[in-house]
Amino acid sequence: MRYIEQLPIIQLFTGAFNWANAWILILLPLVWLLYFVFKVRQPAAFTFSDLSGIKSKTSFKVRLLKKIPPINLFGLSFLIIALARPQTFLKDESIKANGIDILLSLDVSSSMLSKDFEPDRLSVAKKVAADFIDKRKYDRIGLVIFSGEAFTQCPVTSDHEVLKQLLNVVEPGILEDGTAIGMGLATAVNRLKDSNAKSKVVILMTDGVNNAGYIKPEIAQNLAKTLGVKVYTIGIGSTGQALTPVARRFDGSYVYGVSNVEIDENLLVGIADSTGGQYFRAKSGKELSAIYNDIDQMEKTVIDVKSMKKFSEEFRFFLATGCLLLALAAFLKYFYIKPLV
Predict the structure, then answer these.
(1) Rounded Cα gap, residues 36 and 58, in angstroms
(2) Which terminus of the chain, N or C, has less C-beta within 10 A?
(3) All domains in the chain, ordered by first residue
(4) Over the range 126-150, which residues count as b (16 or more CB within 10 Å of their CB) and which as e?
């Protein structure tokens, strides 16, 4: 359907063209008017007092002869359209973005499979993060995952499709289980230390209390502050109790049980405040989405867009069609039906 809509003859009737010499189109109605005026006034070639003796049979060439004037009319019309220079509009954008380098540091411990979010915390966190990535098209974004240890799943990149693919395959069990908040933050900050971006941001999300890793959260916090990295922290999980993985079977599946929701909010608030960021608590998927929207608004990318107008010339189709029609009419008249003319 899109291909059909892009055909020049279709665009002509849908008003998709800009006309460089629009005044030439005035000739179109004049040409058609003259055609019909002369067609009406055209005298008969022969006058007979009685046609009863003439066999009523018209040859193919005679019928074809009557088609030559309309063919000439359409050929001339297409040439007039070509002279009016139909164009399609192209917009050329030169974008200079004062981008932000962002590292998403995501907790992938087994507790992120808790069922207080639908279907679980990690699935919602991945979906909301992917939506956030789509909104930040001018920024470089990377991904760090952590549980009992930390790993750079994707360095900062402007290829957001690759980043989302790597985010999509993240699941618990990739790393040793546990919650190493200090490792998750330190690994993310380390990825940003050589960045030349004017603004460097880490968005750290966890649902637990630091209980693993050889780097303390306070050390990672000081490192972020020293390197000028702003940290937004998000505690994800409802209040009270939630259905949470408590053990793992030999086949890799999890055994669920009811556990208390415990998030070290004091630690997360301290990390955010000391680095100029902010702490958020997400008790539902809707709240988590709203938090990412808030961060998106707070961390605006400065974009300098210079637009230049360009046009694509579309007269060639009409010129070629017009010439072919006139050539066809001339061939029929002077070569194919010549004995009758």
Answers:
(1) 24
(2) N
(3) 2-36+59-91+310-340 (no CATH), 100-300 (3.40.50.410)
(4) bebbeebbeebeebbbbbbbbbebb
